[in-house]
Amino acid sequence: MRVIICGAGQVGYGIAERLAAEQNDVSVIDTSADLIRGVRDNLDVRGFVGHGSHPEVLQKAGAQEADMIIAVTLHDEVNMVACQVAHSLFNVPTKIARIRAQSYLQPHYMDLFSRDHLPIDVIISPEVEVGDMVLRRISLPGATDVVRFADSKILLVAIECLEDCPVVNTPLAQLSELFPDLTSTVVGVLRGERLFVPHSADQLVTGDIAYVVTSKDQVRRTLGLFGHEEQEATRMVIAGGGNIGLYVARALEQRQSRTRVKIIESTRERAVAIADELRRTVVLHGSALDQKVLLEADVQSADLMVALTNDDQVNILSSVMAKRLGCKSNLVLINNPTYHEFTRTLGIDAHVNPRNVTISRVLQHVRRGRIRAVHSVHRGAAEVIEAEALETSPLVGAPLRELELPDGMRIGAVYRDGEMITPSGSLRIKPKDRVVMFALEKAVKQVEQMFRVSLEFF
């Protein structure tokens, strides 16, 4: 596949890194010569200095032969124009744009992005995507990652096995025998830095992070079986009143949540603006790194500190301070992947990576075949994929025990007629079933092949 990426920032670089590693033909455009130099030096891609919305720059990057353009510059208008130029002059089939300003995304204005106006096939709004991820984490304390599939009926949850975890040192096959009515399947395990697909004889050990596919109805029971009985926060402090912080606070108010929320915002004008917009949320003007401000927000008696500023260091330090002052747990927004390595040692309970959220959304449209959703796991070491089975798929017909599945792949659930089915050796996948599976990086291409229309093989 030939892909043009406009924008070589953290998101653009991350997408280019993933696509280049999969042997796609990738060109990256950015106005910064330094960023393009970094892309050329570190990745197997072509780099072009210039504006991604300028026709001559797109032409140099090979737009006339491109299958897809992904516009993720810092400016919405540049992203929109880049897609328009790619469509009008070069007839690029698939156009993806990152749009940050919520004004463009109002439901009554969405006709703007139709084929007759601004022809953008996929709109990615990082603030909304990350805000939804934060809300899912808040609603399921104890899970370090939460992703929804199959009309939100199936969830993937990442759960840390603590010292008092009841299911450690027990073969996974025995869990099915002990809890026959539990619709949960352990599809992946992160042990230290090693991510692997477990076999039925494998056991979880303390410190593991288990990736579990379960039904919406059984997710809290599943967390409980892993020793996580944490209650949903009723007192919360949010550091940062930007787009994400405001989105989360507004959503909690709209849900009639019993959670009492306080926001700390460093810019006075912004603090006044969001205070006018929110009804039940208390807004404090000050720095989240100021202990007096944290105490004024009653962080010492809060259940959860959620740090959502634009500065990773402020997020990390304010969350550490909050726990030292008595806050029960924290959830931190961290952009820089190098910080992820030592979050645990600092006392950070869970973190959200905006870059990973955006890359997962893009991969959903890059993957060939009937792929409905993709979530990237552990910096791209694996993907959780929801795909629709076609009549020509090798998965269809035979019992699962007779299928030769790729090494490094495990089926977590099948969604049929609005119901989740837990996989078993006797289960036969039918056409139009939606299959949720965990695939290590090495198996992703084989998974794609399983869900492609047969004519594409020839």
Instruction: Let me know the largest β-sheet.
Output: 6 strands, parallel
Going by CATH, the architecture of the largest domain would be: 3-Layer(aba) Sandwich
Number of domains: 4
Just give the CATH class of the largest domain: Alpha Beta
CATH topology label of the largest domain: Rossmann fold
Beta-strand level of the residues, as a percent range?
Answer: 25-35%
* Overall morphology: globular
For this entry, give a set of tags.
single chain, about 25% strand, Rossmann fold, about 450 residues, Alpha-Beta Plaits, six-stranded parallel sheet, 22 strands, globular, alpha/beta
Describe the SSE topology.
Layout lengths: L1 E5 L3 H12 L3 E6 L2 H10 L3 E4 L5 H6 L7 E4 L4 H15 L3 E5 L23 E3 L1 H14 L3 E7 L4 E7 L11 H7 L5 E8 L2 E3 L12 E7 L3 H7 L9 E5 L3 H12 L5 E6 L2 H10 L4 E4 L5 H6 L7 E4 L4 H14 L3 E5 L9 H4 L3 E3 L1 H13 L4 E7 L4 E7 L20 E8 L2 E3 L12 E7 L3 H7 L8
Helix pairs in contact: 1-13, 5-8, 5-13
Write a brief structural summary.
With 458 residues, the chain is of the alpha/beta class. It contains 14 helices and 22 strands.
